[in-house]
# Entry
Amino acid sequence: MLKWDSFSKKNPIATGKLLEDGGMLFTWNGFYDSVAESDIWADDADYVLQTNQHTMNLEHCGD
# Structure
């Protein structure tokens, strides 16, 4: 179970960079646990488990 009260509200859980084609380069960081001073659930996110990568391209799919 995740300890929501110990997660940082200042550290980003992910970053995104807009691409010229309208998509986004999305990088998952995980939740930063201020008590343990480490990232939690960084490797356990569903798409990280499926792709073994923290970064993925998101495609724009509509106007």
